[in-house]
Specification:
There is one protein chain. A hairpin with a 5-residue loop joins β6 (about 60-65) and β7. The protein starts with 5 loop residues before the first strand and ends with a helix. It is of the alpha+beta class. The protein contains three helices and ten strands; from the N terminus they run βββαβββββββαα. The radius of gyration is 15 Å and the shape is globular. The structure holds zinc ion (ZN) (2 copies). One zinc ion (ZN) binds near residues 30 and 33.
Length: about 160
């Protein structure tokens, strides 16, 4: 990897640096993500939370209801309230919102998910895996990412 990726909120109170490449990059077309972002999809970099260095203020967790009745924790800047990360169930992996990177164009989705609710005017690129709902990470992720995920989960399971 070249220079480590950095990003932050709109006011600059929250700044972060990613210590490595992500495990995988999702483009999620689900209705929860559309509502939360006010856009057609969200782009998330999945990465071990201990590889996300906070350089300034701590983002504040907000538990947001999802359509399936579960809750998703979204981390927001305490001042401008821009959402920078979210967490789904397990705190070991953060979903970093690619639009908050200093250079969002540096990131390309590895997989498109929940395409059943994709807005019709978004055309998916040929050759990138796409799923109506979710997918089996064991079949899609590189072995190195699966190893990293296993290590992150077992570090807290013991
Ligand atoms: Zn801010
Ligand atoms: Zn989603």
């Amino acid at each position: 990897m070249s220079a480590p990726r950095e990003g932050g909120c709109s006011c600059g109170a929250v700044r972060y640096r990613l210590e490595s490449e992500p495990l995988v990059v999702h483009c999620c077309h689900c209705l929860n993500c559309q509502r939360q972002t006010g856009s057609a999809f969200v782009i998330n970099l999945l990465i071990e939370s201990d590889r996300v260095d906070l350089l300034a203020d701590e983002p504040q967790p907000v538990d947001v209801p999802r359509d399936d009745g579960s809750r998703q924790r979204i981390f927001r800047c305490p001042s401008c309230e821009v959402a920078v990360f979210s967490e789904y169930g397990r705190p070991e992996v953060l979903f970093v919102r690619a639009g908050t990177l200093d250079d969002p164009s540096d990131v390309t989705p590895d997989v498109h998910i929940y395409t059943r609710s994709k807005v019709p005017w978004v055309t998916l690129p040929d050759g990138v895996p796409a799923f109506e709902e979710y997918y089996d990470s064991k079949q899609l992720w590189p072995a190195a990412s699966l190893d990293r995920l296993r290590a992150a989960m077992s570090a807290t399971d013991t």
